Predict the 3D structure of the following.
Amino acid sequence: MSISEEALQKIVQSVMENVERELDGREGIAHQTTSSPIIPKKMKAISLTGNSSSTLNQRDDDGVFTNVNEAVEQSVKAQATFVKNISLDGRTKVLQAIKDVVLREKRDLSERVVQETGLGSIEDKVLKHELVVAKTPGVEDLRTEAMSGDNGLTIVEDAPYGVIVAVTPVTNPTTTIVNNGLSMIAAGNSVVFNVHPSSKLVCGHLVRVINRAIVDAGGPANLISMIEEPTLETLKELAAHPKVRLLVGTGGQGLVRSLLQSGKKAIGAGAGNPPVIVDETANLEQAAKSIILGASFDHNILCIAEKEVFVLKEVADDLIYQFLQHDAYVLNRDELEKVMNLVLIEDRLDKNASPGCSLQTKKTYHISKEWIGQSANKILQKIGIRKENARLLLCEVDFEHPFVQLEQMMPVLPIVRVDSFEEAVDKAVSAEHGNRHTAVIHSKNVDRMSTFARAIETTIFVKNASSLAGVGFGGEGYTTMTIAGPTGEGVTSARSFTRKRRCVLAEGGFRIIG
Ligand code: NAD
């Protein structure tokens, strides 16, 4: 039998009248009007619609804090409640609730990110949100090792650290919160984010939305939280807080260095400059399509994105022909100079460079922030070329060119012709600058694949596919937004944010020594 809203109201009304009549009839009660302030308040607490979410999450429990200490203390409380009161099944429900809300809000989040940061493509950011929801592992990623024998049973568990502080990059602000957040709480931790300041509004919005979802799913408030006005100072305070057990940083080398100097356990995911080798055995059409996909995705702001190509000279023209068939635009010498003037800033004379006989000194550059993460069409338009469908700009350059050496993070891909595979490997290793982040090869020669993989030693090595396959986008395996090369955790997941805990039942728990 179903009761209508109107009928429910009538029942409540009549119960109230009965209670009030009863109170009116009692001896010794001074207050005998029908407007008792106590009774109606209690009756109002009954939800007629069944929607209680708005009453559960109060404003000071929304996960966004102005004060570092308050954020950490609330995070400590949330983590303790989480591991004490929520079962592994409950943890999975919380993770699913976060995934559901992110999937529902993916377009709005992507639009907000582009609006606030000015970087990347809305459509590609929608795909990134879908990727982290679909491919971030949960509690199933945790492992328990067991050893048994005459002396009993020993198990080694993946246990939480407690409160984690995580730093996020401007290039993947919301998707790093979602991916890190899912992995860290799957492992039983809580996390306080110090996000990139240029993404604090969208991150604040996301943290509030996630908090509401967690609370509605039965989890504690502030399991995922952030500092409202993140700065280097707030990060310093967070890192120094005695109740913070682990630091996780995703960004450039400066961030990773500073976390490693903190004196705390730190997981650092730093910069890349992924090279691609294309040899004469490769399927050139497939290579061109894959390179365009990876290098143009989100306007090349991903750390794994193809940043420079070394192609064997005998197939260089054919590869460029294939690029032209698939929405790439090749800059001529004049256009390349215009793009360089636009996006490169000469920073200083390199004092270490030997002037040599010609007395020439080496110029060094950095990338103009204004052009990071902008579209190929926008760059073309700025140099006076009207094009609608260019996804990637290509240019033929020397190995020393700043587009090869710098992590430029825009859809301008330099191509270097090489005489031999050995030369390609040497140059690719050198252009990667020892980041050991990501590298790609297009070849049918398995020996060459192994040779390049061994020489470059990157955390992610992709063969005959786009770099995106390395994080599970069109490739097998789970995804991450935090590729921890410098500290060795690699493609991070829940397990990366755990500490090993050994639990021993000696002598089977029975035998008394003596
Ligand atoms: P960034 O290094 O400028 O900033 C990243 C974060 O670190 C921000 O929150 C920033 O406020 C903070 N930060 C910067 N310098 C710091 C310092 N010296 N001390 C303490 N904190 C500092 O990087 P970004 O521009 O936001 O992101 C792009 C960079 O991140 C690229 O180099 C890219 O390769 C890298 N990245 C790496 C991964 C990975 O998984 N390895 C993932 C995404 C991005």
User: Anything to note?
Assistant: The longest strand covers residues 152-160.
